[in-house]
Design a protein that fits this description.
single chain; globular; six-stranded mixed sheet; about 220 residues; three-stranded antiparallel sheet; mainly beta
């Protein structure tokens, strides 16, 4: 699916719940919505009452219930190899990684990553208990390839094109820490018209990076 934007892209981030009772990783991270539109400009309301979603990540499982993606199949939780994350795959291939995620390899055409479907989500992502005071407020790293209409670049190349750092704990008020929506905005830098790889990358613990990839269209290509 292609996202058109000349101004800003909103990446809404969320994590899964830590559980000491289930054999799973301590936390996961994904972005349900890559382009969020507020009902009112700059309202800061990330909830489904505050706007709607206009674009999604690669091969995103549309139609999943709010906050359910920690158990979705395929899951959205791709953790890069924590021994050398800066040289790991930037986008999950469904096989590699400490915790393999869904297949986020580049589709041809790009729209094929969504099975030809264009959906609208009027929800954002839950904080999954990781926006509370005793959790670190690590920044969400937004990397945008400078190569248009081409193959995916390496993680090293993406790290040379970090276009935003967003605080994870930018969230709505509320008492439900599991389902509290979080989000952040940034301005898309100038690029020649075309389709570019956008990567959302977040570190929970040292060398524990979770990534998610999307294709965005800049300009009127």
């Amino acid at each position: 699916m292609i996202l058109k934007s000349s101004f800003a892209v909103l990446v809404v981030a969320a994590l899964t719940v830590f559980s000491s009772y289930a054999p799973q990783a301590e936390a996961h991270s994904w972005a349900d919505c890559i382009k969020w539109e507020f009902n009112k400009a700059d309202s800061g309301d990330w909830s489904d009452n505050g706007g709607k979603c206009l674009g999604y990540a690669r091969r995103f499982p549309l139609g999943k219930p709010f906050g359910s993606l920690d158990d979705a199949d395929p899951n959205r939780n791709y953790e890069q190899d924590n021994k050398d994350p800066d040289h790991a795959l930037p986008c999950s291939d469904g096989k590699a990684g400490t915790e393999p995620g869904s297949n986020e390899t580049l589709a041809n055409p790009t729209s094929a990553a969504y099975g030809g479907k264009w959906g609208q989500m009027t929800i954002t992502n839950p904080a999954k208990n990781h926006a509370v005071s005793n959790e670190p407020n690590h920044m969400v790293q937004i990397n945008l390839s400078n190569v248009r209409n081409g193959k995916d670049v390496s993680q090293q190349q993406l790290l040379q094109n970090t276009v935003a750092q967003l605080p994870f704990k930018n969230r709505n008020k509320g008492s439900n820490e599991d389902r509290r929506p979080c989000g952040g905005c940034f301005k898309v830098p100038a690029r020649a018209s075309g389709i570019y790889l956008l990567q959302r990358r977040w570190m929970l613990n040292q060398n524990e990076w979770y990534t998610l990839c999307a294709d965005i269209q800049i300009g009127d290509n």
